[in-house]
TrEMBL record, chains A, B:
It comes from Aminobacter aganoensis. GO terms for molecular function: hydroxymethylglutaryl-CoA lyase activity; metal ion binding. Keywords: Lyase, Metal-binding. This is Hydroxymethylglutaryl-CoA lyase. PANTHER family: HYDROXYMETHYLGLUTARYL-COA LYASE.
Amino acid sequence: MTVESTVGASGGALPKSVRIVEVGPRDGLQNEKGLVPLAAKVALIERLVAAGLRTIEAGSFVAPRWVPQMADTDRVVAQFRSTLDVEMPVLVPNLKGLELAKAAGARTVAIFAAATESFARANLNAPRAESIARFAEVAAGARAHGMRVRGYVSCAVHCPYEGWVEPGVAAELAAALTEMGCYEVSMCDTTGAASPGRARAMAAATIAAIPLEQVAVHFHDTFGQALVNTLTCLELGISVVDSSVSGLGGCPYSPGAAGNLATEDLVYMLEGLGIETGVDLEALVEAGRQISGVLGRTPASRTALAMAGRRTTTCNAPLSN
Amino acid sequence: MTVESTVGASGGALPKSVRIVEVGPRDGLQNEKGLVPLAAKVALIERLVAAGLRTIEAGSFVAPRWVPQMADTDRVVAQFRSTLDVEMPVLVPNLKGLELAKAAGARTVAIFAAATESFARANLNAPRAESIARFAEVAAGARAHGMRVRGYVSCAVHCPYEGWVEPGVAAELAAALTEMGCYEVSMCDTTGAASPGRARAMAAATIAAIPLEQVAVHFHDTFGQALVNTLTCLELGISVVDSSVSGLGGCPYSPGAAGNLATEDLVYMLEGLGIETGVDLEALVEAGRQISGVLGRTPASRTALAMAGRRTTTCNAPLSN
């Protein structure tokens, strides 16, 4: 399908290009109950690379009993060791994970801190301050080994236990992560509760705390707000966006739960705005179709569904408007 | 669920309140294959009224063989004749339809013109100029009877036959409809192909052609862009938005086709931005749940799914971000 270039930008000063961080192979798949075969993960990443994505989160080095789906991350990383033009961060929760990442040949790791005390204890099994100290060690160890380090701030807008999060608190944590040496910090709306006003406030506080070019955003589509929140952040000049092919990432414990922002819907919007991504939308949709087939589910991306069904024509029923 | 007030508006000058035009009972249901019982339609409208909606498109007066689902619109209208504080437009394609609307006691009718020649011929069975002349007659007849007239511009951004539509062409048609006496013109992205740049260009051209307060927007979620397009138009000061409870309105001939912007997702965003709607989100979600049950389908609204499952808490799986 051809999407012509923009006919006028949105309100703010939009970036000329956006780098998409595809998180489907990790954030998207990690909660799948049925183990996804290694070959399917490798094929997914190969298709994402072929579609033009140049940052792809490949997996995580955590205890297999904790996240069994990611137990083969070493083999995923090994498979792409020679793919030098694609950055493939892997999540590491601690020094042991870092050692595994090093052994596998990973060049980039990601660390993830929580903005609230309750979420740190629930998600990271440690008090907030202790988890931050632990990540500082991991970051130092990674950098000493010549690895790049990406940071995440979970609950940057809303916490499932504590409610709305002060933008300044999230921004301060972003600053701590950059001080540890993170080249980029992804601000995550973990619950998907943000709407554009809160997304903008969080992004503005973050930009005030760390350099604009180091800020990434990561929205979930729980309330259908992921894309509109993303545009709001782009209008502030942010140009790095996390998303997941086919909107993978729903929670297995909440049937019907919405996952990450769908990469296809993001690319469709950016193309329409004349913003470069380097991604081939047709090839991306095909990558999503293939992994959705493996998982036995319908893509959560509207664009994927539209393009799969060639639903660019309207309904033939009379009185359509 | 409590959604706190805004913490800062988006980029543009957002309106303080938005009037939502709920189109579920007409645009949402018209293409359903299985006939929806009159009692279910009446119950839906009653629940929408109870939820605080004050403009509800109730049905259409067209030949029953053309749109069998709307054959009982006279009885729907009769049921709400004494509900004086709710505006309930009914679609009328011609003078015969207008007579039926008058006989039923409708106080507001809607007419719908197409921006492109091809769509006028396909959807209205008449050349574009002829259909416009026909609607001028209908509007004059309605106003002579003391009725209010709402206008629609179909294919205001994109036509399934002719591709992208010049914003000026859509705006000119909006001007023609206001000259006929329409109190408001709803600019429809019929195929759902618009992304925010094109939505903004269309809206800006329309605002230049007719008074701001007479402009409404109507987006479909085919490519997942309905909400972000809507916010882009609100930033231009537009304050009337069409939407459909549960995102009803998918095309029966295209399984999986996305419908209208879901009212629940719209209300969630507006509440978060501190923009008044007068709508109770919990009651709205319940109205959507009930009609979705009648239709035997899952709501297309993410907010409806989130609130139904109380999925405001994040996934319990470790490493959520």
